Amino acid sequence: MLEVRNLCLKLDEFELTDINFSVGDGDYFIILGESGSGKSLILESLLGMYHPDQGEIQFRGKNITETPISLRPAGIVFQDHLVFPHLTVFENIAYPLKRQHIKPREIRRKVVEMAEKLNISGLLHKKKEKLSGGELQRVALARTLVMKPPLLLLDEPLSSLDVTLKSEIRRLLRQLHREGQTIIHVTHDYVEAIALGNKVAILEKGTILQSGDIHEVFLKPKSAFVARMAGISNFFHVITDHTSEGKRIAVTDNGYMIHCTLEDDSKEGYALIKAGEITVSVNKPESSAMNVFRGVITEVADSPEGKELWIDCGIEIVALITRESFARLQLDIGLECWVSWKSSEVKFIDL
């Protein structure tokens, strides 16, 4: 459906460099990166707000790189909604249709139909100040979708919503995707990406580091940056070696040995361990795990899956445990504990 080929764009001191990706019909394509990485600039280039210095954008085999905004096959929903405060919900949704000089009867039919689809029929007479954040986002989506764009562009659509409203809008976006809507969605949130997308591109400082099927990218990150964006908290620069018993180890920069299983003779790279694969205990564990360290809990944070613990073992380890385990073990900041994980849980990125 959409092909972005070797797109480069310099804007003030920032530059997009050699951007390449493709989006198929019905894909939910995530562009994942930190703030300032160029995510929104890519969307704005697709929309036609900026023209690239080089490269091209093709849509269904047609070069649209220089096509005016009004003729682009895309509609966008921005982070801050941009719902017109002086218009009712009905008038907001109808606005782009009126600009197309569609007959009033047809406008009413389309607006009512879209409002029903997005469950905002009861809001059509209201203005912006009477709407919640989730309702505002639905209105912004309705105003864009009423034009039936082949491509729906979403610029951090959930970032200003609370947890309940995020869940509500996620369900709506998944429903739109199931109905066949092609979506390109930029975000800095790994959880948001994995909950919604089927394809992903990881962006850092204007460059795509890795792209493809979302589960494949997150299971096999090709760099420490991608690993971090994929929610892998524990990654260490290491040199691999063998113990006197012939077992494979990865030695961190400060000399800590992490037992691992490697099939090749890689010497330098990154060792990665998912936080959820690490076991936390108050006593030294009696298990088959090869990696066992004692440490002190330095930080505790809530997460959707339970409790995240930062543990100083000489190297900093992040573990994810259930709230029940956290309470049962009576863990807290400043307490000593043990962490352990199997050598098979250590993934390796070759440099």
Could you describe the 3D structure shown?
With 351 residues, the protein is of the alpha+beta class. The protein has 2 domains: 228 residues, P-loop containing nucleotide triphosphate hydrolases (Rossmann fold), CATH 3.40.50.300; 115 residues, RNA polymerase II/Efflux pump adaptor protein, barrel-sandwich hybrid domain (OB fold (Dihydrolipoamide Acetyltransferase, E2P), Beta Barrel). Helix content is 25%, strand content 35%. It has a 6-stranded mixed β-sheet, with helices on both faces.
As a percent range, the share of helical residues equals 25-40%
Name the CATH class of the largest domain. Alpha Beta
Low-confidence stretches: none
Helix vs. strand class: alpha+beta
Fraction of residues in β-strands: 35-45%
Shape: globular
| Main sheet: strand order | 6-7-8-3-9-10
Assembly type of the chains comes to single chain
Overall pLDDT level? 90
CATH fold type of the largest domain: Rossmann fold
- Total discrete domains: 2
For the terminal residues, how far apart are their CA atoms? 34 Å
* Rg of Cα set: 24 Å
N-to-C order of helices and strands: EEEHEEEHHHEHEHEEHHEEEEEEEEHEE
Alpha plus pi helix count: 9
Summarize this structure briefly.
With 351 residues, the protein is of the alpha+beta class.
List keywords for this structure.
20 strands; 2 domains; OB fold (Dihydrolipoamide Acetyltransferase, E2P); six-stranded mixed sheet; 35% strand; 351 residues; alpha+beta; Rossmann fold; five-stranded antiparallel sheet
Outline the fold blueprint.
Elements: E1 2-11, E2 14-23, E3 28-33, H1 39-47, E4 54-59, E5 62-63, E6 74-77, H2 89-99, H3 104-117, H4 133-145, E7 151-155, H5 163-178, E8 182-187, H6 190-196, E9 199-204, E10 207-213, H7 214-219, H8 224-229, E11 234-242, E12 248-252, E13 257-259, E14 268-273, E15 279-281, E16 291-303, E17 306-312, E18 316-321, H9 323-328, E19 336-341, E20 347-350
Parallel strand pairs: 3-8, 3-9, 6-7, 7-8
Antiparallel strand pairs: 1-2, 1-4, 4-5, 9-10, 11-12, 11-14, 12-13, 14-20, 15-19, 16-17, 16-19, 17-18
Helix pairs in contact: 2-3, 2-4, 4-5
